[in-house]
Amino acid sequence: MFQEEESSSMQRSLQLSDDQAVTEPDAYTGALLRHIGGLEEEVARLRASLRDKEELERSVARLRDANEHLVLAAINEQSLRDEAEAANRRQNEFLAMLAHELRNPLVPISMSSMLLERSVNASPQVLNFSKVIRRQVDHMASLLDDLLDAARISSGKITIHREPLALAEVIDQAVETVLPRVRERGQQLEVHLPPEAVGTRGDRVRLAQVFTNLLGNASKYTGDGGTITLHVTQAGDEVVATVADNGTGIAPEVLPHIFDLFTQGPRSLARSEGGLGVGLNVVRNLVSMHGGTIRAESPGVGHGSRFILRLPGCAMPQAPLPPVETSAASAPCRVLIIEDNPDAAETLKAFLDMEGHDVSMAQDGAAGLQALLSGKFDVVVCDIGLPGMDGLEVVSRLRAAQDGAGPVAIGLSGYGQAEDRSRARAAGFDHYLVKPVNPDTLLALVAPRR
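Request: output the structure for the sequence above.
Response:
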């Protein structure tokens, strides 16, 4: 019986051992599987982190490349900006030099036409031709002024000097300028001003230029015998001026760009209205600088056009004193002309000789200064752009040698910017005339000091 119990106990023990043998591997496997699962998750996280790191590195590389491109682009942009500014400076310098060189031959042409007009033996036909020459000289000078102004405005070199002024006076000046051309083409120019005087704050010279360009443009694109009207009204705090014509009109596709630089209206094959396409651009910019606006209207080609200009109004200034009448000097003057262009010198001399003055000439600055220091002259007419010793140095040395005294000094130059005039005044010039010189203006200045 004892053996049976022992045998039964051993069986239970073996059975228990077998159960434990079965149970223990299952727990271990589960734990192992869980551990493996954790490792797999960790590996997955590491792989994800690796992918994120690689993506981050790629992003950093892309950003680095983009930054390098940005730096290069900034450098290139600055380089292009510098090149553009340099090109703009060269363009302005070239335009100024071009205007100077083109103005030089206009002097003898203008003076020659004046000599023909004043010649006692001139036939009516010669007189007519001389007037045509004068008008064309003035037209070419106006084109040069527009071209230079367009360049100066684009580079911010134009300043305006505002003052209260009567708009009627500005318009009178503009009408006087364009009237010869209007009459030449048999056109009718009608000016309608309000009964009450209207004023604005502006630059007298620049506003006269605005109205001259608008009226001249209307005459240019209006046929012979056509009509041009200028209406001025007061509208609240604004002055409104409308320039209208019954000329060629403006095409719808051109109208939005009519104030852009180098934009021109239609040309006919029969006439060369032409121009440089800069006048209206100059007008818009000058009007804007005065705080005003301008717009163009036209029903279409062949139906005329209108330009409506609005300027801020202001109280009228006091009426100016009547201008003093200027005329040629009653007594002859001793005049020295310093000019390296032989044609210009000869025509200037002939013109002043005809008016009774005693005129001498010098062809360069050194000879001119020597003549001034050794002789006695009432007036010196001196070209600024002389070779070697220029006109500024001539007059500066003359004033220094004579303690600021000496003859009236009249400077002639193809450059007309404010800084050019300032340098001439600083050197000692009394007057500064831009070529081509108006003969009457020159004649009025040729007088001894009082």
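The longest helix spans residues 2-118.
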